[in-house]
User: What shape does this take?
Amino acid sequence: MQVLGVLDCGGGGETVERVVDRLVDAFAERGRVGVVRYDATIADGTSVVRDPGLTPGGDVTYDLGADGDWVACGTGFSIEDAVDALARDDCAYAVVVGHRTGQYPTVTVGADVPEGTDVVATVETPADLDLESLVDRVDEHEPHVTLETLVERVKRADDADRAGAIATFTGRVRARDSDDDTPTEYLEFEKYDGVADEKLAALREALEARDGVYAVELHHRTGVVRDGEDIVFVVVLAGHRAEAFRTVEDGINRLKAEVPIFKKEVTIDDEFWVHDRP
Assistant: This one.
């Protein structure tokens, strides 16, 4: 799933909403679209989303319609949680409105752009959008991938009815190996452009050619990945657990050995490319 941020940088709320409408229409020509709107006033109770005389009976409430339409409200849900939910809901695109995370390419409306924003377009009005070019640029960014979406993908394989096992591996950023280690703040990954993707595709094809293996998904994030976040996924659909476990282990070992992805580690007092460290 590709994710685009939309940020009000002095353009005004009504203009931002018209920009969002045009973007959603453009993305919808290529796939299912989800929208996440961030509103800080929800936390202090000044944003009213339902009759104030009614109190939802729970931390999360879904109002469901006969045709699958729904409205939800609740607590304890982050921007990342919402984007993950849209990915699980098989959205091809997500538009995140009103929240600058630094993770996603962003369209800014107005000229007062915060430092550090990954800007793909700055507009004053919806008419300023070059939609076809913008969607192409969003498609060039690394997609947002979750383990759950990869599992759902292998379940749709042609031979899924012959499979009795799904095995997965998730690699994540650990803060330290022991109590006296210097804590890691984040890792930063860079791919050898073109070559890394070719190696990943070749590795996936080789693993899927094994007897009893019906589908394999491999994904490695690039850019900044912070302490506790997921880095890499391997998912295998196989006839039996033995083939699934073996293929997952071989998959992550070969990915680390064969795919040119370079890692920089940033601790609280140092930073270094791991392959350069003595």
